[in-house]
Amino acid sequence: MRLVWGSATHPGRVRTVNQDATLAGPRIFAVADGMGGHAAGEVASALAVAALAALEDRDPLVRADVVEALSTADAHILAAAEEDPDRAGMGTTVAGVADCEEGLVVFSIGDSRVYRVRAGHLAQLTSDDSVTADLVRRGELLEEDAATHPQRHVLTRAVGLGLADDAPVATEQGRTGDRYLVCSDGLVRELDDATLREELVRGTDAVRLAQRLLDDAIAAGAEDNVSVIVVDVLAAPADEVTVPSSAGGSTPNDAGATADALDVTVPPGRRGGA
Amino acid sequence: MPLVAATGAVALAVEDGDADLLAEVHAALVAEAGLDELLGVLTSGGHSRVPGFACVAREAGRVRLLVRGAGGVTVHGGPDDGRDVTPAGGLATWREEVLDTADGLDLRLGDTTVLLWTPSVTTAAESAVEADDHATAAPAAADDHTTAAPAVAPDHTTVVGRTGGTGPSAPGAAPPPPQRTDPATRATADGQQPPAPPATPEQPADDATLAERPPVPSDDAPADRPGGVDPDRTDTTSADTDTDRTHNDRTHTEQGAPAPVTADGLIGGVPRRHRPATGAPAARPPDPTAADVEAGTDSSIEGPPPPAADERLGDHDGRTVVEVSLPADHTPGPQVAAAGGVPGLRCRAGHANPPHAATCRACGAPLDDATPERFERPTVARVVFTDGRVIELDRPHLLGRSPSPDPALGLGQPVGLHTIPDDDRNLSRNHVAVHVEGWSVAIEDLGSLNGTSVALPGKEPVRLRAGERAPLVLGARVELADVAAFELEAPR
Predict the structure, then answer these.
(1) Which of B:283-302 have CB within 8 Å of A?
(2) Is 0.90 surpassed by the pTM of this model?
């Protein structure tokens, strides 16, 4: 799969420290939004991103590797927190896309997000692990009220607190022309879905688009750290050649039914394998 | 004359040369610059114009030393006892070594030992004796200068071309006081100042200072900001250029009593509020005082998160928390804002600047009246690639085809990762590290296959050797294996 990407991260206009960390390519694209005082949040996010970065030379890279790396990140952050009491309770969100053997593996823990633009349509591929998102899902809170709900900052899940097992991951077949957006909540807090879609559909190259989305968020106030990664699929193998024999008649594109929301959990047998 | 100066953490000797450059080096030292930042200043005129120097610093519990040209260092104590570190012939840059331990370091310029420096703590008594010797040795010349330029002199730990061999700086023993052999002009420039003892007892002086003056900004701000308007910039040129200076910030450092002199004569020129707190964060008062304003992300400043059980989990960009119960043994530390951060100046528009900047790097606003403060992790520069990618440099970064932090790189956490697209695999996985230390930026080639070249502003590119580290100043251009190039730009 041929990918081109742009990424940008900024502390925003209110925060003095950027607790976000990003990993942009060549095969894994992830945003981690750390939490915890005393410089702990940025350590947690950096550790999470480092665990994923360690996968980059793995060949082949498979979905189970990603799941394992999230567990590893969880363990590393816990261990680092135990070493330094000031860092106890630090954690991080992680969301991203990995170019794996099985396809594009989309993952998210916390409230960082992955979106996809395909044929002009914007789809949010991840669901937030937050109290308000849960309430909305249960029909107990209106979507439009979530942004002002007193518990809007409360996560139900994060990496680094022993909560990364059974990480929700979904696999989808990227197609040529697809555009993925990985971002921290600092972006979506400033730009509504319509604006986001407009920019993502209209935007030209990934490098400039990532920078522009960041600039837009900062112009809008950016009270939080903002991290943006835009990944464009220049050429997807599924579109290039027909896979011989194994596909058994069906085209690869058909096989790649996309996950519109992340509800797929890796079977326990697949975990901790590699 | 050469510049010889020291703070508690850094000592340096720079051979005579460009007076403006020496003044800048000195200003940076006074502003508590780290070794890398000092290197940045030293090399700001291009590699070919870098004077010879010997530089030693305590960093992360170890001793780092750099020598170039006529500069040399003799090590006392530890496994390297008696060893002379001199730059190899024909070295285009400088030689760098890191020692695990050393009891004393003699800085040399040519055959002259110019400074005896002790990287570890010496007793206050020893220092006092030293200072006393200095005080008596110091000629009472240049009274006019005393009133004219009090701000500059204290910083010159002033030392002195002490001729003779290497001093017997045995472990724990106070080195012999250097004798002033400065030419008269030098005496005029600095003579009113009790020169500082060469052995630098950082701890006693610093601790005493901290005890006397808790780190509360604003009330004594001017005294803490020696470099803001670069009062030191011309101090090594001549007394004349100093006479119109009106900064009396550090007049208090000129009292002659031996012991105080030790504290101030040596370190007095260093902005004390800027010193990193040496105590554990827990030793600090548990209330977020004004000094900790920069730690604005701390939850102790933010409103408490809604569910009480979550408060202990700290903050997520200040407010977000995770809804879980922690095991009982998972008790977080006290809610104390860490005393870290980098001292600097904030311009009226809010941009963070190094403490010795005269004007804001981002907007050009004058920093004359800027209040010094600590910045938690300022964006010290932007790495702007030719293809439009930008790294906001607020932490060390690894750059490469597929960067992955390796603990052996010693970058600590957090480290930023920046992948440079390179289908042809000409870049190494971890190609270079961009170090951020205080306000200074340095680039290190991590043994890349196809190399890295650095061009300082207006200079020809110089290729880095594998493992070689070079300071970067704004405007420096770096090429990575002909695959990617970036320029270091001022933050926005």
Answers:
(1) 294-300
(2) no
